[in-house]
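Quick check before the chapter quiz. The format below is the same one you will see on the exam, so make sure you can read both the input and the output lines.
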Amino acid sequence: TTEPTTPPATSAPTEIPTDPIAPTEPPPEPKEEEEADLQDLPDGTVPHGGLEITWENPFDDIHEEDWFFADVIYAYRQGLMVGLSNTKFAPALSMTRGMIVTVMHRLAGSPEPLALGQQFSDVEAEAYYHDAVLWAQQNGLAVGLGAGIFAPEAAITRQDLAVFLCRIADYLGYELPQVRSYIPFVDEESISDYALSSIIRLYEAGIFGGRPGHLADPQGVATRGELAALLHRFVVVLGIG
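Here is the expected output.
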């Protein structure tokens, strides 16, 4: 199922995990991303960053010169992200809570949730994220905003994205490596207390790099292109699959 085309809100209600990556300037792409393992891709060979990537691009809004090109290929081919249609990936669109929980569900192998009924009044049974939200709630990976509300269309911030990624890593039993020492971000005081440890863990693992100027931009909104980049690093660093 494709994800909805309705643009999400530009800010999210607070909850212990609403996540982001900033929509304005993309981060410099780390070397690790270009050198990551991109085997087993669809037909057609495209050179990118020194790699010969086998891939037939179905999206007319994703181009070889885009900094996130290899990351979108990877996330799409691994079945972690899909397009909003057969031809649109919408890399600049803000990620929503429904989208990120769906990605987490796919990382876990899309397990069936327990048949306990829906806990949230704003998650319709036919919504593409229905099973993912129910599964995440049942396993303590995502909570609502209170009063039976999940807010699946609310945009997710960078700090909440870090929280969600650490939760799914812990749930799957993966230990985040420490490949570098944490250097406090210039805007560290803007990081919420509940999210700081997750941002530090992902930074030390080489997954979360921050914005130019060594900014975490914790309240910034995550875009689909940026999530593809984080997912690529996340999966490769942890060796998932």
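If your answer matched, good. The first strand starts at residue 45 and ends at 48.
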